[in-house]
Amino acid sequence: MTSHLRSDGLYLVKGENISRPFLCCPNIGIRCIWYKKPYSSSSNSSSKGTTSLCGSSESYALGSRICYYLVVMAVYITMVVIGVVHWYDCPINTLIPPYLVVGGLCGAAMAVHWMWRLSKGTSGSFEMFMFVLYAFFHIVWFLLGSLWIYGVHPDYEHKYSPNFCQKTLYSFSFWLMHFSMVVLFSSFAWLFLSLLKVIYLMVKLRNP
Prior knowledge:
Number of strands: 4
Number of domains: 2
Helix content: 55-70%
Strand order of the largest sheet: 1-2-3-4
Structural class: alpha+beta
Keywords: Membrane, Transmembrane, Transmembrane helix
Number of helices: 4
Low-confidence stretches: 4-24, 26-53
Transmembrane segments: 66-88, 94-116, 128-152, 172-196
């Protein structure tokens, strides 16, 4: 398997075990399209066609990521609002409202950072450091939150009871913890599958 960098920034990948060549757009990750026309480095029509295809794919990927971060931002803002409104409404565990507020503020700040990075197209060691830092914070905060939320059985009826916790506050925190658990384990599964894919491609390139 061989790859050739074209003048338009696309990679043409060919090999004996590939039925037909395909083009990859490196600026949006490993995204490839089948190359149907005969390859010619000086072909303007082919270059424009593949560039427009990859350009539209890049725009779609950027738009979908921004939409994703906007939805995430809405969840983080909801966390902050519910935590602030019901700050004194959970005497059974007074750490649940701060859990929502701190988690929502840190998550919103990170979402803003990632949207800014996507709009500017910047990347580097600082972005990787921020990603690792946020992932570490998310895991630690998730573990602490699971102890604080799952470790109590609140009373919703008697407001002045020491076991009281406002129903909206606790229900939101409880289901948010469930959702975070699904996202966390899904992320680990995706990383594991991505690692397997990288290993498979490396073995395939070394043994064509």
